[in-house]
Structure formats: C-alpha cells, structure tokens
Write a structure and sequence with these properties.
By secondary structure, the protein is of the alpha/beta class. The chain has one domain: 3-Layer(aba) Sandwich (Rossmann fold). 42% of the residues lie in helices and 15% in strands. The chain contains 8 helices and 7 strands; from the N terminus they run E-H-E-H-E-H-E-H-E-H-E-H-H-H-E. Strands 3-2-1-4-5-6-7 form a 7-stranded parallel sheet, sandwiched between helices. Helix 4 links the parallel strand 4 and strand 5. Bound molecules: NADP nicotinamide-adenine-dinucleotide phosphate. NADP nicotinamide-adenine-dinucleotide phosphate binds next to helix 1.
Length: 251
C-alpha cells in the first residue's frame, strides 16, 4: 500500500460496526492500519475479533444512537482506550417504510433522530476534538436518496438528503481547520437494511435492471472509498458525496 492510503497510528470510530456496511468499513480501515472503536447497541463481537486477527486494536462501545445521550461518552472512551481520535464514520442508520399518507410521527422521529440528529451531534463532539488537534476525517453515510426522492420512505429520504447538506455545511466550516468532512452514498447494497427490497421479486428485478454493473453491491464494495476518505489521499477533498453505486446515478 502506498503511504498516502496508510492509516497506521490512526484511531477511528465506526457506528453500527456489528453488521453490513459499518462492519465492512471497520474492517477496511483496520486493514489499512487503523484501530477501531465499534459503536452500537449490539456488540460488534465478530468485527472486533476480525480486527484483532488483522493485528489492530478494536473495542466495543455500547451506545444507542436513537438519542444523543451517549455522544460525549463515545468520544471520551475512544480517546481514553485507543489513545486518540482521527476518523469518524457515521454509519448507523434505520429505515421505515409506509405510504406517505399513512406515515406516523413515530416512524418520522425514530429515523430522523438516529440518521440525522445523532449524526450531527456526534460530528459536533468529534469535530471539537479534531479542530483542537488540527486534523481529522469525518465520513457520513448518505444514500441514493440524498440525490433522489425514493418511494414510501419519507423520513429516510429527509434524513439522507439532510446528511448531504450537513456534510457540505460542516466542510465549509471546518475545511480550513484541517478537518475533512465528506460522505459516501452507497447504491443498492445487499444488507439487512435492504432485505425487504431483495425479497420483493418485482422490486429486485427493476433495481437490478437499472444498475449498470448488473449486480447488487456487497458491503465490502464500500471499503475502498472509506479508506480513501479517511486517509491523506483525500486531504483536498471537502464536502463531497462519493457515490459507490455500480453506476446507478449515471443512468
Ligand atoms: P444494517 O445492516 O441494517 O446496519 C445498520 C447498522 O446501524 C447496524 O449496526 C445497527 O445496529 C445500527 N443501528 C441502527 N439503529 C441504531 C441505534 N439506535 N443505535 C446504534 N446503532 C444503530 O444496514 P446497512 O445497509 O449496513 O446500513 C448502514 C448505513 O448505510 C445506514 O446509514 C444506511 O442507511 C446506509 N445505506 C445503506 C444502503 C444499502 O443498500 N444497504 C444504501 C444506502 C445507504 P443493530 O444491529 O444493533 O440494529
């Protein structure tokens, strides 16, 4: 690996690292040399073991990001146990599906609180630390619905469109302070989050027909973009939303 992608000596927080995209990104960052704090409500037992097998340090930090209560503790524990904090990946997220006319306030609030409110306040807490140290890398996980409207997922679309705006706002405020804030917009990736779509024969077929790459993405397809945005290779990349979508947006 060339040194510009080397993450040796860096510590990263990855939220939702027990499964899916968060797990794949945690493993990719560790393979590039980083130590990882896996943050979530379900312990990332398998992820921590796999990172240890790579010869890197990994810890679990228990946190339910449905509220912002755990934010301060996440930052404190990471710095205390890993000796620093250089990378934040805001990956934890949920989705609720219903027709817009039937959509409930509970489904609105749950998704906005987890996918947008907690992301902002974790960025804020980590950003304060990164600004003080003069460098840092923040990667928010966006979506195709950062660019498109979607259907039957109003709070999810609002949250992921919000992630796009928030990523640019934070980049504007923090770029000159040495903190890069960018986002990755995954296309259709085979995880728990998309299990309902994969199981729906018609939706599955119409999605596949539109993907130029001709296949659903695997969570591991996100690893390269994450390492790029976490490393010095992206030092002059600010407020960018990097689609990793098999060409979906090009159609
Ligand atoms: P996933 O397999 O369902 O994983 C979601 C992760 O978020 C899990 O680790 C989950 O933990 C965690 N999480 C959810 N609510 C949480 C809470 N209140 N507190 C702490 N952690 C919480 O889905 P995924 O596909 O990997 O999704 C990861 C991210 O990618 C999400 O932001 C999603 O919106 C985004 N994304 C996914 C796709 C796709 O095609 N899959 C496309 C675009 C964007 P638990 O296991 O404990 O629930």
């Amino acid at each position: 690996m060339t040194t510009m992608f080397d993450l040796t000596g860096k510590s990263a927080i990855v939220t939702g690292a027990n499964t899916g995209i968060g797990q794949a990104i945690a493993l990719a960052l560790a393979a590039a040399g980083a130590d990882i704090a896996c943050v979530g409500r379900t312990p990332a037992v398998e992820t921590v073991a796999q990172i240890a097998a790579l010869g890197r340090r990994a810890i679990n930090i228990a946190a339910d990001l449905a509220t912002i209560a755990p934010v301060g503790d996440i930052v404190d524990q990471t710095i205390e146990k890993l000796g620093g904090l250089h990378i934040l990946v805001n990956n934890a997220g949920i989705i609720r599906r219903a027709d817009a006319v039937d959509f409930t306030e509970a489904d609105w609030d749950a998704v906005i609180d987890t996918n947008l409110k907690s992301v902002f306040f974790l960025c804020q807490a980590v950003g304060r630390h990164m600004i003080a140290q003069g460098h840092g890398k923040i990667i928010n996980i966006a979506s195709m619905l950062t660019f498109q409207g979607g259907i039957r997922v109003p709070s999810y679309t609002a949250s992921k469109s919000g992630i796009g705006g928030l990523t640019k706002l934070l980049a504007n405020e923090w770029a000159a302070k040495g903190v890069n804030v960018n986002a990755i917009a995954p296309g259709y990736i085979a995880t728990n989050n998309t299990a309902a779509l994969q199981a729906d024969e018609n939706r599955n077929r119409s999605i596949l027909e539109r993907i130029p790459a001709g296949r659903w993405g695997a969570a591991s397809d996100l690893g390269g973009a994450a390492v790029f945005l976490a490393s010095s290779a992206s030092d002059y990349v600010q407020g960018h939303i990097l689609a990793v979508d098999g060409g979906w947006l090009a159609r």
